Amino acid sequence: MSFADNLAAIQRRISQACTSAGRDERSVMLLAVTKAHSPEAVREAVDIGQLFFGENKVQEAKAKIPLCPARARWHFIGHLQSNKVRDAVEIFEMIQSVDSLGLAREISKRSEQAARTMPVLVEVNIAGEGSKFGYKPEQLAAEMKQLASLPRIAIEGLMAVPPFAIEPEKSRAYFRRLRELKSRCEQICGAPLPHLSMGMSGDFEIAIEEGATIVRIGTALFGPRKAVSQVME
User: Please, what are the domains in the chain?
Assistant: First the structure.
C-alpha cells in the first residue's frame, strides 16, 4: 500500500476511536514518526497533507530536515542528551522527552539564548522499566513545581511509552495511569496541561479512548524502517 492509503486508513481508525470515546477527532494530532525514513518519504507525506513529524535522533534530524519541505513541523521524541540541546532548540518546535530537571534547565537556558520559549512534554517511565528513560511518577510529582517555574520552557503535558504488548488492550492501564498523573500535575502546578502523547502503531486506538491528544505512528504509515545508513543516500 502507498503512504496515501496508509494515511487514509490511520485517519479512519483515529476517527472511529474518537467516535467510540465521544471525542472530536480534531482533538487528536497524528505525529508521523520518520526515524530511518528518507526526506523523499517526508516530502510525499507533506504533499498529501501530513504536516506533523517526529524524530528520535538530533543528528539524523539535522541532516534530514533541511532537505524536507519547509511546511513540515517537527517534534523531538527520543532521548535527548544535554550536549544536543542547543541543536534541538534550533530544529524542533516541541521536545516531547524531558526526563529530568537537569535537562529541563538546560533546555530553558538554551531557549533563553535563542530568544524563544520551548514547548515541552515531560516523559514518564510509567511502568518503571529499567531499559527506558523518563520520570518516575512520584519523582515527577515532587519536581513538578520546579519544572513549571523554569522561565523558557512551557510544559504542555506528558508523554509515555508503555511496555510492549502484543495485545493492545494490555496498554490501557498504563495510558489511564498517565492520564491520572496529568490531572495530579495540573493540580500541583495550578495550570492546565493540554497534551497526552501516548499510543503508537499497535495501540493508538486504546490510547485515544484513554485521552491521548498526540499519537506517534511510524511503521503503520511508512512501512518497515530502512537501515539508518540508507536514509540519506
Answer: 3-231 (3.20.20.10)
